[in-house]
Amino acid sequence: MNITIHRGTHQIGGSCIELSTQNTRIIFDVGQELPSIDGIELVNQQKKINVPGLFKDTEKNVDALFISHYHGDHIGLLGDVCKNIPIYMGEKAARIFNTTALFINSKIFVNPAEYLVNGQEIVVGDFSVIPYLVDHSAFDAYAFVIRGKGKCVVYTGDLRAHGNKQNIMKAFLKQLPDKVDALIVEGTIMSRLTEKVKTEAQIGQEAEDFMRIHDRPIFVLQSSTNIDRLVQMYKAAKHTKRLFIVDIFTAHIVSQLGSSIPNPRTFKDIRVFYPFHLTRRMFSKSNSNEMMWEFSRYRISAEELSNRKDYCMLIRDSMLFDLNQRIRNIKDAGLIYSMWNGYLKSARMQRLMNFFASKNMEVIYLHTSGHADVETIKRITQACRPQLIIPVHTEHPERFREIFNNAIAAYDGQLISF
């Protein structure tokens, strides 16, 4: 069996990993490199990675593409992939990806040949691939156990053990085979070893404490697809008797994930806000009207929000117009910034934060990583006892050598045979 890390040995994001035998080639993730902080898009990214037989401008000879989760640094080059390569991805992850594509005017959608199911084997040529649900900031994320030609490899994808799905992580560790030949493990946290990792439950409790100051609305700046965080913010709002407000995009995301995830259809204390620019753009598309009307019965207007303070509202930086021009009486409100602090350097985010300052909002910063800390990585290695550890999704693979004597610092494009 051969392993080639086409990209990701010395960077966070842009992941692309190949396992191959003489007869079969399978790819795990096809990520776009992370954009610069100032929001300038990276161009011609498909030319930055050379994977014969994977992309449209080559003759197809890749047998399958497995997507661990829907974050762009793992699926962002999907639109450049040969159309006849079978794709495997989680069903709910695919729904989130496709719903997001509809709202951002993307023409790239995923149509999996088969959905990943926790513990259910998929056979592709010489390979047996078993996906396992893991705890990550992306919903419906998977790690993989891959067997072929008498060898066994584990690829973790992105994962952690401090989210809402800690029991899933425990189950994953129990399912790992003993003494695997290679462990391909994410090492994002190696860039931030001094960072104190909070649990999602701790984030939720701190948010709840902040929301207990009642005579003001609360705004939460977070990703609409970070479902663990959304669940914690909903719980905090519920415990402090606040109405929970999501926008129409977020409503479509959460309503496809099952009745246990807070959503306007089955949770009576959730209402839906229609942002001005997003609503106008979506209604201008002839095929989107029905989708936009789908949650109209749960709509809350800017006027109603202006006349009450007992709510917690999820927002994004694209909603500045609504906050500035449509929703009144938000002076002295509370803001929970619940994203990676690096985004604060972008010009767009700075404009938004300056607006909050002009409204004299009290701001707190509540966030935790979607990635494994060192102790979790140690638990994984103890569970599967790999002969070889190959760090990926990391800027510092050499730091693994300080902890694990069987770790190597591979380089992009290196062929590892065993």
| Share of helix, binned | 25-40%
Q: Which outline best applies?
A: globular
For the biggest β-sheet, the strand order reads 6-5-4-3-2-1-19
Strand element count: 19
Average pLDDT rating: 94
Distance between the termini: 6 Å
By helix and strand content, what is the structural category? alpha/beta
Oligomer: single chain
Strand content: 15-25%
Write down the Rg: 22 Å
Question: Number of helix segments?
Answer: 13
- Can you summarize the main beta sheet? 7 strands, mixed
Poorly predicted tracts of residues: 37-47
Question: What does this protein structure show overall?
Answer:
The chain has 418 residues and is an alpha/beta fold. Helices cover 27% and strands 21% of the residues. It contains 13 helices and 19 strands. The strands form three sheets. The chain has a seven-stranded mixed β-sheet with strand order 6-5-4-3-2-1-19. Strands 7-8-9-10-11-18 form a six-stranded mixed β-sheet, with helices on one face. Helix 4 runs parallel beside helix 5. The model is unreliable at 37-47 (pLDDT under 50).
